């Protein structure tokens, strides 16, 4: 038997046969090599196990981290500006500078000999926390980068207490001469770029510097020549001799990375064009990073250059043009814009959202149709539910014709019309011809269509291979201060990189933080083509250097970058998904609530008719001095309205009462036998509301003291009207809605006359209380419910408008963030990302 | 979760869930490491290593509990960090006195265990992704060869099997070169 890996494996797994095992054991006893092999193989098995455990642990931990991160992201606003590290503290160069005197007894060497210059130059004192990375800018612009724990006390430990950093500087010739500083090195004349002195103390004690963490001094380059750094040596005569020259590296000047603009070209312009406050970084970040949730397909090869963006700079502004059209004079309002303030985007877009046809359609529907139809469910009332009616019904103008005069369409032998006629118990629909115009019907269907649950979301994983905002977020971080990323030069390159849509170019720069920019430029120029190539060649010619960082720093930043990028991407994706899911759920809830409300309203209305007939009936018999026969009036089906009774006899009275009630016309019936007359008057009341147009929604309730619910007064040409049953006590309540504000006027003892109401604003809660107190009727409850629902609807409308505005904004910004891709998330105006069915 | 339950769950290999549970000790360990010249990244690494050793030790037949498990986990972490510091530090033995070993985790034992674990893991992690996946699915997840062949797209079970042996051989080579 050959004792190879396979056999050993089987042995370890206990899969050898009896005889094979025996052979193996024998061999094992004699063969040292096999024993060793076996041992190693066992170790490997162990290794696999441990490797498996480790994978499980680290997956589990990174999930926890993402979870934690998500909690930090405010969902409602999707502000994703988070995790600003506390590492970087900028101590502004406003050191307390005192009079020209020596502040300390002893100098940096612990000696007391100070030079003339020491005495002449003012000290700038900076107090720093030695535990943190600190950047200091002196008065004349020397930038000192001090790493955390760069100072050591006498015990060789990093001190805990604050450190005083003393700086003296003479950077201009006049300062140098005034300070009496020499510019000689061992007798030779030097051309100086400036001189400075630096010393750190803890209390009075000098601190040493950790040699592995030198302070980086960035001295402004005034001459463009190669400069060297000399060390000053105090001479007894108070002069300073400059010795030990070391060439200084021409380094790129780094700045606070968060102050740079790493957004794609035109990003801020576009937002500004839409009226946003682009100085609000929390806002702009939240817009930009929200796109990090797009799945990125990996970093592709070099896509064809975009002619529009590159050949003619003006063209690239086309996206701006498109949006400036909607930019209403937003900025003047001075609306404070805290976090992706959608109110501002709303008001921006308001001009664009047409004066809701929804409103008219809704009103018309409620007045005319809601008794028999549910607008956005399939629930059958008297007539069928109208959800999806436009898809079901024959195309063309069928719906219009049928709605206006169903009788005619049915009689014409139309198949579909006859089918539904039969399906719905041959209950004929009211003929609206003459009552409703074509435009009215259209508005009604618009309402039905609009309210219907939005469609399925189109995409979940649209694939984008461009520079992901998550990568930008990862580098746009104080952690990258003091690297090539935190330079104006990189900012400039990034703009070109964005236009190439090539994420690997970005990686080229961010993964080689210890290289000189010009080296990276040449590599970039090598791999890319088109106009971008020229740009990179141009950059290369400038021979911009790098920023010194240690390999260790580079490695740790690379780790950070890799980890953060994926964490951000995942966290943002999840946050966005969660947000969309929540919004979908809210829409769903609202839609359910609405259909329930409409259903209830229809139910109440049909009851109402019956109640009024009953009441009129009693009243008529009372006036006639007759006892009302115990024949129950059959509940008038709605079809009954158009098919009056033709039986004579007792029913005559009934018939007239029913007819007059249904038509709301005065009953004036004289009994032929007794000569007595029953008179139930219906007289017209009209209500005009001041500033009718200013309201989003106006509802005029007619509330009686006899019936269990309210009636809605019909709105026609901005006048509400209804015939009042004079045997009832009638009250009119008008409620107006403007955004989330409510307005109110009422007339408790309404008469047959024309009213003109000016509404006054009222707190919704107060309104409810007042109506409750003033109207102790059985129908009051329903009025309050309806008001409640309207308020809910107003809020919902506002919420939807916000969502719509946000999605429109995202659609517009998409092409700016991903200039090489078209937005393929479907028709945003339709809110198609929201799916109620699912 | 009491200690007994914890041990049972470790034996049941519910490592993912346990990690989530034990993550509550991470802040303490992080605090400790940051106080002792480490950073967050160090803390994460140490915590992860400590968990591996912890699970591994508890799984070993010889394991006997004499202190509470969280003390034990903390002890492992401390010792691991101590060892790392000792390696890195210029001050050598200076650091040593700072730590008092707690619970069952004796310093040498943990350090030795840590090295062994690291070595074994390293030999496996140095393999190609496909190899790793295959081995983990077979030996750790206990899938059968047929499922594995399907999942990884081998045209037959036999090919997957042969591949598995090749992977083990490769790992053995790496392991030998490391020791």
Model description:
The complex is a heterodimer of chains A (838) and B (179). Chain A has 838 residues and is α+β, with helices and mostly antiparallel strands. Chain A has 25 helices and 28 strands. In chain A, the strands form nine sheets. Chain A has a five-stranded antiparallel beta sheet with strand order 2-3-7-10-11. In chain A, strands 22-21-25-26-28 form a five-stranded antiparallel beta sheet. In chain A, helix 10 (342-350) crosses helix 25 (780-817). Chain A is elongated. The relative contact order of chain A is 0.08. The model of chain A is unreliable at 72-101, 296-358, 452-462, 635-649 and 822-838 (pLDDT under 50). Classes of the chains: A alpha+beta (838), B mainly alpha (179). Chains A and B meet through helix 1 and helix 3 of A and helix 2, helix 4, helix 6, helix 7 and helix 9 of B.
Descriptive terms for the model:
heterodimer, A: 838 residues, alpha+beta, 5-stranded antiparallel beta sheet, 25 helices, elongated, disordered C terminus, B: 179 residues, mainly alpha, 72% helix, 0% strand, globular
Q: How many helix segments of chain B?
A: 9
Q: Structural class, from secondary structure content of chain A?
A: alpha+beta
Strand content of chain B: under 5%
Number of strands of chain A: 28
| Average pLDDT number of chain B | 81
Task: Write a short abstract of this structure.
Chain A is α+β, with helices and mostly antiparallel strands.
What topology emerges from the helices and strands here?
The complex is a heterodimer of chains A (838) and B (179).
Chain A lengths: L4 H9 L4 H13 L1 H41 L16 E3 L4 E2 L18 H5 L3 E5 L5 E4 L5 E4 L4 E2 L10 E8 L2 H6 L5 E2 L2 E2 L5 E8 L2 E2 L1 E2 L6 E3 L9 E7 L5 E8 L19 H7 L7 H9 L5 E2 L10 H4 L7 H7 L17 H9 L6 H13 L19 H4 L5 H7 L1 H6 L3 H9 L14 H14 L11 E2 L4 H7 L12 H13 L2 H8 L6 H11 L2 H13 L8 H74 L26 H13 L3 E4 L6 E4 L1 E8 L7 E8 L6 E2 L1 E3 L2 E7 L4 E9 L2 E7 L6 E4 L2 E3 L1 H11 L5 H38 L21
Parallel strand pairs in A: 1-4, 16-17, 20-27
Antiparallel strand pairs in A: 2-3, 3-7, 4-5, 5-13, 6-12, 7-10, 8-9, 10-11, 14-15, 18-19, 20-24, 21-22, 21-25, 23-24, 25-26, 26-28
Helix pairs in contact in A: 1-3, 3-22, 10-25, 11-16, 17-22, 18-19, 18-21, 20-21, 22-23, 22-25, 24-25
Chain B lengths: L2 H9 L3 H8 L3 H10 L4 H20 L9 H20 L18 H19 L3 H12 L4 H8 L4 H22 L1
């Amino acid at each position: 038997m050959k004792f190879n890996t396979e056999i050993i494996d089987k042995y370890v797994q206990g899969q050898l046969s009896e005889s094979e095992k025996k052979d193996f054991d024998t061999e094992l006893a004699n063969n040292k090599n096999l024993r060793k092999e076996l041992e190693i193989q066992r170790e490997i098995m162990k290794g696999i196990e441990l490797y498996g455990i480790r994978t499980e642990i680290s997956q589990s931990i990174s999930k926890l981290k993402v979870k934690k991160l998500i909690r930090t992201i405010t969902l409602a606003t999707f502000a994703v500006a988070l995790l600003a590290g506390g590492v970087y503290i900028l101590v502004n160069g406003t050191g307390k500078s005192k009079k020209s005197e020596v502040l300390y007894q002893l100098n940096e060497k612990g000696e007391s000999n100070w030079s003339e210059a020491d005495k002449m130059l003012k000290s700038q004192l900076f107090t720093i926390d030695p535990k943190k990375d600190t950047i200091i800018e002196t008065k004349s612009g020397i930038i000192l980068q001090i790493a955390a724990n760069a100072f050591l006390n006498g015990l060789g430990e990093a001190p805990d207490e604050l450190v005083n950093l003393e700086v003296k500087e003479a950077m201009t010739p006049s300062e140098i001469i005034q300070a009496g500083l020499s510019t000689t090195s061992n007798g030779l004349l030097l051309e100086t770029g400036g001189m400075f002195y630096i010393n750190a103390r803890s209390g009075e004690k000098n601190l040493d510097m950790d040699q592995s963490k030198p302070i980086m001094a960035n001295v402004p380059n005034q001459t463009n020549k190669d400069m060297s750094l000399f060390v000053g040596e105090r001479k007894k005569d108070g002069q300073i001799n400059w010795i030990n020259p070391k060439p200084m590296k021409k380094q790129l000047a780094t700045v606070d990375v968060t102050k740079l603009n790493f957004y794609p070209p035109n990003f801020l312009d576009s937002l500004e064009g839409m009226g946003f406050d682009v100085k609000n970084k929390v806002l702009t970040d939240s817009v930009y990073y929200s796109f990090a949730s797009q799945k990125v397909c990996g970093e592709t090869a070099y896509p064809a250059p975009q002619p529009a963006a590159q050949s003619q700079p003006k063209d690239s502004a086309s996206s701006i043009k498109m949006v400036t059209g909607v930019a209403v004079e937003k900025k003047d309002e001075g609306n404070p814009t805290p976090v992706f303030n959608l109110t501002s985007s709303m008001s921006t877009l308001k001009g664009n959202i047409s004066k809701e046809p929804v409103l008219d359609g809704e009103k018309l529907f409620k007045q005319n149709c809601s008794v028999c139809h549910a607008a956005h469910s399939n629930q059958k009332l008297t007539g069928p539910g109208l959800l999806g009616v436009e898809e079901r019904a024959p195309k063309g103008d069928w719906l219009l014709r049928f709605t206006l005069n169903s009788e005619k369409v049915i009689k014409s032998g139309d198949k579909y019309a006859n089918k539904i006629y039969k399906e719905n118990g041959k209950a004929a629909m009211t003929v609206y011809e003459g009552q409703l115009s074509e435009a009215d019907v259209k508005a009604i269907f618009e309402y039905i269509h609009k309210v219907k649950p939005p469609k399925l979301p189109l995409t979940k994983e649209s694939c984008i291979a461009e520079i992901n905002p998550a990568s930008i977020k990862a580098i746009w971080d104080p952690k990258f201060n003091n690297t090539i990323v935190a330079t104006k030069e990189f900012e400039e390159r990034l703009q070109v990189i964005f236009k190439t849509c090539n994420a690997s170019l970005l990686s080229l720069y961010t993964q080689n933080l210890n290289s000189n920019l010009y080296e990276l430029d040449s590599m970039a120029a090598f791999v890319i083509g088109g106009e971008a190539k020229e740009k990179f060649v141009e950059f290369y010619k400038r021979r911009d250097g790098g920023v010194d960082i240690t390999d260790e720093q580079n490695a740790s930043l690379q780790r950070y970058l890799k980890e953060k990028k994926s964490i951000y991407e995942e966290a943002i994706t999840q946050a966005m998904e969660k947000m969309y899911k929540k919004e979908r759920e809210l829409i769903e809830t609202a839609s359910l609530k609405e259909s329930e409300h409409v259903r209830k309203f229809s139910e109440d209305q049909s009851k109402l008719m019956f109640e009024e007939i009953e009441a009129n009936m009693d009243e008529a018999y009372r006036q006639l001095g007759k006892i009302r026969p115990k024949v129950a009036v059959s509940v008038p089906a709605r079809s009954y309205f158009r098919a009056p009774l033709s039986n004579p006899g007792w029913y005559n009275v009934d018939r007239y009462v029913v007819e007059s009630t249904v038509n709301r016309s005065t009953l004036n019936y004289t009994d032929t036998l007794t000569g007595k007359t029953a008179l139930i008057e219906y007289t017209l009341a009209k209500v005009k509301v001041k500033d009718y147009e200013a309201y989003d929604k106006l509802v005029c309730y007619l509330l009686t003291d006899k019936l269990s619910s309210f009636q809605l007064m019909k709105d026609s040409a901005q006048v509400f009207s209804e015939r009042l049953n004079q045997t009832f006590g009638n009250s009119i309540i008008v409620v107006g809605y403007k955004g989330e504000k409510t307005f109110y006027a009422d007339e408790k003892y309404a008469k047959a006359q024309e009213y003109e109401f000016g509404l006054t604003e009222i707190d919704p809660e107060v309104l409810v209380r007042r109506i409750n107190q003033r109207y102790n009727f059985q129908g009051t409850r329903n009025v309050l419910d309806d008001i409640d629902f309207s308020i809910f609807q107003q809020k919902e409308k506002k919420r939807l408008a916000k969502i719509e505005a946000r999605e429109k904004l995202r659609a517009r910004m998409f092409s700016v963030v991903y200039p090489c891709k078209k937005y393929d998330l479907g028709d945003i105006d339709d809110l198609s990302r929201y799916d109620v069915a699912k | 979760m009491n200690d007994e339950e914890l041990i049972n769950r470790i034996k049941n290999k519910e490592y993912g869930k346990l990690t989530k549970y034990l993550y509550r000790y991470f802040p303490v360990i992080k605090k400790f490491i940051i106080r002792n010249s480490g950073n967050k990244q160090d803390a994460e690494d140490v915590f992860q290593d400590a968990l591996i050793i912890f699970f591994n030790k508890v799984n070993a037949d010889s394991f006997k509990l004499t202190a509470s498990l969280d003390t034990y986990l903390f002890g492992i972490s401390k010792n691991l960090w101590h060892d790392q510091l000792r390696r890195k530090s210029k001050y050598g033995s200076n650091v040593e006195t700072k730590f008092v070993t707690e619970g069952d985790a004796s310093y040498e034992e943990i350090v030795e265990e840590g090295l062994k674990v690291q070595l074994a893991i390293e030999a496996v992690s140095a393999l190609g992704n496909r190899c790793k996946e295959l081995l983990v699915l077979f030996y750790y997840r206990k899938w059968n060869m047929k499922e594995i062949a399907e999942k990884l797209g081998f045209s037959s079970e036999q090919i997957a099997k042969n591949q598995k042996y090749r992977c083990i051989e490769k790992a053995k080579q790496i392991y030998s070169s490391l020791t």
